Amino acid sequence: MMELIAQNMAPIMFLSLVGFLLLGYPVAFSLAANGLLFFIIGVELAPLSNGTISLSWPLLYALPERFWGIMQNETLLAIPFFTFMGIVLERSGMAEDLLDTIGQLFGPVRGGLAYAVIVVGALLAATTGVVAASVIAMGLISLPIMLRYGYDRRVATGVIAASGTLAQIIPPSLVLIVLADQLGRSVGDMYKGALIPGLVLSGIYLSYVMIVSILKPDWVPALPKEARTLGSGVTSLFVAIAATVGLAWFLIHWMYPTHGDNADILGAALAIIAIYVVALLNRALKLNIMSYLTQQVIMVLIPPLALIFLVLGTIFLGVATPTEGGAMGAVGSLALAAMKGRLNLTVIRQALASTTRLASFVMFILVGARVFSLTFYGVNGHLWVEHLLTSLPGGQLGFLIVVSILVFVLAFFLDFFELAFIIIPLLAPAAEKLGIDLIWFGVILGVNMQTSFMHPPFGFALFYLRSVAPKIPYVDRVTGKQMAPVKTSQIYWGAVPFVFIQIIMVALVIGFPYMVTHYKGKPIDLKDVKIEMPTMPGLGGGGLGVPKLGVPPLGGSGGGVGAPNLGGN
């Protein structure tokens, strides 16, 4: 009996961890306690394991070195930087300005407020990278407006919760940083690979709202004219966009000979700066060359776009590492908050407290995961998992389908950090052995982990929204009408269509890998490769300029790189 336990220690250890988690113990302590408990058992049963267990007491000396490796990991330093940036921006009022302006822009269209929430959700995702900040900000600002003008409660809450989760997959996502670290890949490559899937997912959300506006127009009414305080002037906005695109096209072609592929980002940045300067001059000098709506849209959109370029643009250009990009983003968020007059000691104190709390949470889970993995690898658990997964039918596709289903089910009980630190280290070796690109694999898992925020019982985005949605009847401050509260069941049912959309997105990323693998750049055509060897004069004709290295005949003249002349005189 003891021999059987010793030879099957890996599956027993894994099932024991699942039991600890289901009992409700904190993840970090469950990992560490499980690892130490089975280390003691493994050392005692090692003689009975027939070589399966390779644990001994001196192996514990490796733990301090593993902990020090966590503390030295510069990649993980990006997590507190991006967290701090997101919280400061959330306090700076940027979300309010974006939602108000974009809501006015899309207001005349059915579903306009829902479109605005999705667009702003994508922008907040690209600036904050924090789901909680996005969901709470949009829930506080846009939910009362959507309820005021007759939006269906399920659609309104579903759109807000789903748009907030875009911070999971659109760079600079904290999830992508952790995934890149656990997969041993570059964070910059992970960001490049995830950018297109994140934008495609945002487009599918917009398409869903459009379908709802066609089939159920009374669920998503247009904003009434009296509520559109910024006036009209959409034609002026189209002209401004066309002028910006034209200027960017000219700058890109002009800069391409000197800057190469980087000309795209630089040209677009200069064009955006130019239109922003025009809007500032129009407001300061009252030039009236653009409508008030256009001026407001440009002045509200450009600062977050500038911050996105400061963070992501510098990373994609290779100017900064993700950690350095996060540091610049943190400084940029402080500058934006100061420009709006929202920067004070209270904001900084709250941001530092929240950042410290999240960074400590991540570090404790990492420490626990290191203890668990030391024992798990000592009982050959990695070989057990690898054999289990690589023997699945269907090769790469079968592996990806089974893993996607596994992660989707586990997301009902674990959040994304726990999934990343527990599951990814077990899955990555099997994926690499099957020849799967690990950046592609990481993006598939990242999209899948979004569902952990969206479905019960532990959908954190739903909890965040529940915390700010009205729980009791209230009087609307604009219309003076008595408004019904939002039920928890309405929040849950509103999230269901978006969970299905995220599952469809997982299938699209699996089916069209080039959405991710474009980060590698264009493949090299070997027909265009030409190898030239430099000639090496004066060393003899060895073909292709390589000298003859043979031994000269005995008694011959002793030049060259052969043996010395052994003939006598």
TrEMBL record:
InterPro entries cross-referenced by the UniProt entry: DctM (IPR010656), TRAP_DctM (IPR004681)
Organism of this sequence: Acidimangrovimonas pyrenivorans
Subcellular location: Cell inner membrane
Role this protein plays: Part of the tripartite ATP-independent periplasmic (TRAP) transport system.
Annotated TM spans: 12-32, 38-63, 75-93, 113-143, 155-179, 194-215, 227-253, 265-285, 297-320, 326-345, 357-379, 399-426, 438-465, 491-516
Pfam families: DctM
Keyword terms: Cell inner membrane, Cell membrane, Membrane, Transmembrane, Transmembrane helix, Transport
Membrane topology classification: Multi-pass membrane protein
Record-given protein name: TRAP transporter large permease subunit
Residue intervals of the TRAP C4-dicarboxylate transport system permease DctM subunit domain: 14-515
Lineage: Bacteria, Pseudomonadati, Pseudomonadota, Alphaproteobacteria, Rhodobacterales
